[in-house]
């Protein structure tokens, strides 16, 4: 019976974590460049159940031989193995703002590969993002909404000295004083990146390898790839499963209560 407690409780914990992922997706449905989180459930390792017994061997010494009779396998619940972002391309929304940029994927040789803007956080660390909702700070540098520098292909902050600049489809940012290539990085396995919040990812990404193509759209933002209707449906299903495990746990608790109070009193 105690094993049933653990199985039902693990199911409740797993559904709670799924609820957190679905809630986060829905709350970021309008966040530019946001990639929806996907959870995967996995069962705990199976245990092989055996019936322990013995057999008397008719010998002069009455030898007792232990015997194990296989009964079958038993799972002890599920858990959320990992949460992986879905890096599929989101729809494009036109804003008409010169500092808004969007990456449109072209040919990507790796199924799990993805393209990112390269930015630099306040600690000088390199981060990657699909959120092109940029602006120009008081010093004339192109920055994210968090104030992180947007980098060029050489890894240097991009100085625009205002909003009077243009970006070509191949990523060349042009101002009256200079022309630089946007720092677009490519991760062959985007699932290996670490999600840090605010649309930022940490990990290993590199310059574009041969065969990778893309285009930049100025005055556009990439929408979140969250399907709000599907996320709401999944949230309801997860909530119902949580309630089911809750009822099972309550039934076990009532049975244990009877075993302790009623059966013990009769004995």
UniProtKB/TrEMBL annotation:
Residues 217-260 form the Flagellar basal-body/hook protein C-terminal domain. Keywords: Bacterial flagellum, Cell projection, Cilium, Flagellum. Residues 113-172 form the Flagellar hook protein FlgE/F/G-like D1 domain. It comes from the Bacteria. Its main location: other. It is found in: Bacterial flagellum basal body. GO terms for cellular component: bacterial-type flagellum basal body. It holds the Pfam family Flg_bb_rod. Belongs to the flagella basal body rod proteins family. PANTHER family: FLAGELLAR BASAL-BODY ROD PROTEIN FLGG, FLAGELLAR PROTEIN. This is Flagellar hook-basal body protein. The lineage of its organism: Bacteria, Bacillati, Bacillota, Bacilli, Bacillales.
């Amino acid at each position: 019976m105690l094993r049933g407690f653990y199985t039902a409780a693990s199911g409740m914990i797993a559904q709670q974590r799924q609820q957190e992922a679905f809630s986060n997706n829905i709350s970021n449905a309008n966040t530019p460049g946001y990639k929806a989180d996907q959870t995967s459930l996995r069962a705990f390792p199976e245990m092989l159940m055996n019936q322990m017994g013995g057999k008397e061997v008719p010998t002069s010494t009455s030898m007792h031989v232990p015997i194990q009779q296989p009964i079958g396998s038993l799972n002890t619940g599920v858990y959320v193995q990992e949460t992986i972002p879905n890096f599929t391309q989101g729809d494009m929304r036109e804003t008409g703002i010169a500092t808004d940029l969007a990456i449109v994927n072209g040919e990507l040789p790796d199924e799990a590969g993805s393209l990112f803007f390269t930015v630099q956080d306040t600690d000088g660390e390199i981060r990657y993002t699909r959120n092109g909702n940029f602006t120009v700070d008081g010093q004339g540098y192109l920055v994210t909404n968090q104030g992180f520098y947007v980098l060029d292909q050489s890894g240097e902050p991009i100085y625009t000295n205002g909003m009077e600049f243009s970006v070509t489809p191949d990523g060349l940012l042009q101002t009256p004083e200079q022309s630089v290539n946007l720092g677009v990085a490519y991760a062959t396995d985007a699932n290996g990146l670490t999600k840090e919040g605010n649309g930022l990812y940490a990990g290993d990404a590199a310059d574009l390898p041969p065969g990778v193509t893309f285009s930049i759209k100025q005055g556009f933002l990439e929408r979140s790839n969250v399907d709000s209707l599907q996320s709401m449906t999944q949230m309801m299903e997860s909530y119902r499963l949580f309630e089911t495990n809750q009822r099972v746990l309550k039934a076990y608790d009532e049975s244990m209560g009877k075993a302790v109070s009623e059966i013990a009193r009769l004995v």
